[in-house]
Write a structure and sequence with these properties.
single chain, alpha/beta, two-stranded parallel ribbon, 14 helices, 13 strands, globular
């Protein structure tokens, strides 16, 4: 009689714990702090002058209309709401909106778009390497690892001076091979706020074209920096110059619908036929991961963008968020010469030249919650918290 001897099976109980994503852990830590004067500049959500993250008025109105008129919740398919993607096209693509080589699909947030975009790249070329400037959004590297693409990191930011290490960036991209991927931040760089200027975008685009790279542009904050069109400059320049481009877009911030997870993935190839084939892979990957994207938030965005009155009101609300971000930046920047760099950056984030020890001390002594990296959310601050924040940070810089 045959007997089988089992060595000890690997079971779920053998799994080592995973370190919590530090940004998500911060949400819990800040919430649990009982101090009344705590300041949460951790995770990236817009807050108004009194520290709230309100639902946009246009979103409330669109949700009401959705509630009143939606007749079914039957499946839409892996592509989600096609009209949602059609309405986003001109906002993101500008003069490229009519280009039939570009196709877009709804995704669960910008993170879903990134995962789907990297899945497509890995399907097409598992040997492609992804060139990523550091620091970057802490979830970029895990997503790239999840699709098993090799990652090449290069230094993007000179933290002490608050500037981009542009020559290092160019040198890294020049060392890439045809078919490698350049991961770029479309605007409002997360975590540093240090965006490429238009002339730097031109230089980067030239290198991307010369080296035959595929740009994957993450644009999660369109409209939070300088304006909808200005913030899409890099995306549109790459679309003008490259045959193959991938764009991961998010509405979570510019429609303030974070937890509803509204985003889209855009793929450009050299021909409408090749794009259609690439999209068949996109739909297959989406089917494997989430089957179909969640509808509610995208359906509300669809209602806003499809109604001229609501669209106009959205633009006003978006400009209001942008103006607050820039006003808080200027207020912090003018408080101390060592913080002046913050006034020249864009979007919600900036990175202070402080080490983890100082970050933890700010947390303990001053109840100020920022990412371990020194990244802080500029508009995490209510108006009445700004002076205390500045004083504590200046104290930390002097320590
Ligand atoms: C952030 O960077 O704080 C946001 O994009 C939230 C997240 O998912 O990390």
């Amino acid at each position: 009689m045959l007997t089988r001897t089992h060595t000890k099976a690997v079971t779920l109980a053998d799994l080592p714990p995973v370190q919590n994503d530090s940004l998500l852990a911060l949400i819990g830590l800040a919430a649990a702090d009982p101090r009344n004067d705590k300041i949460d500049v951790g995770v990236g959500v817009f807050r108004d002058a009194v520290g709230n993250t309100p639902i946009l008025k246009v979103m409330k109105e669109a949700e009401q209309r959705l509630h009143d008129t939606q007749a079914t919740k039957a499946y839409l398919g892996s592509w989600g709401d096609r009209r949602f993607a059609d309405l986003l096209r001109p906002i993101l693509l500008g003069e490229h909106a009519a280009d039939e080589r570009i196709s877009g699909v709804q995704t669960p947030g910008g993170c879903g778009a990134l995962r789907l975009g990297f899945e497509l790249l890995a399907t097409a070329n598992p040997d492609a390497r992804v060139f990523m400037g550091t620091p970057s959004w802490p979830n970029h590297a895990p997503i790239i690892r999840a699709v098993r693409l090799e990652m090449v990191e290069y230094p993007y930011y000179e933290r002490g001076q608050g500037v981009i290490r542009f020559e290092d960036m160019l040198a890294a991209l020049r060392s890439a091979e045809p078919g490698d991927v350049a991961l770029l931040h479309g605007c409002c760089h997360n975590p540093t706020g240090a965006d490429l200027s238009e002339s730097q975008w031109r230089e980067v685009t030239n290198v991307v074209v010369e080296r035959g790279l595929i740009p994957l542009i993450d644009i999660a904050y369109q409209g939070f920096g300088r304006g909808l069109d200005e913030d899409a400059f890099g995306v549109r320049l790459m679309l003008s110059s490259c045959d193959e481009v991938i764009v991961a877009q998010s509405c979570d911030k510019n429609f303030s619908c974070y937890r509803d997870r509204v985003g889209s993935l855009w793929v450009k190839t050299g021909s409408p036929e090749a794009t259609a084939t690439a999209m068949s892979h996109v739909f297959q990957r989406a089917r494997e991961m989430w089957s179909m994207p969640p509808d509610h938030g995208a359906a509300a965005v669809h209602i806003i963008l499809d109604d001229p009155q609501l669209r106009a009101e959205w633009l006003i609300e978006l400009a209001g968020m942008r103006d607050r971000i820039n006003a808080v930046r200027q207020r912090i920047a003018s408080a101390d010469p060592r913080l002046a760099f913050i006034g020249k950056q864009f979007g919600m984030f900036s990175m202070l030249p402080v080490g983890k020890e100082q970050v933890l001390k700010l947390r303990e002594d001053d109840a100020i919650y920022m990412a371990d990296s020194g990244r802080f959310n500029v508009v995490g601050l209510g108006d009445d918290q700004i002076d205390r924040f500045i004083a504590a940070v200046v104290g930390a810089l002097e320590a």
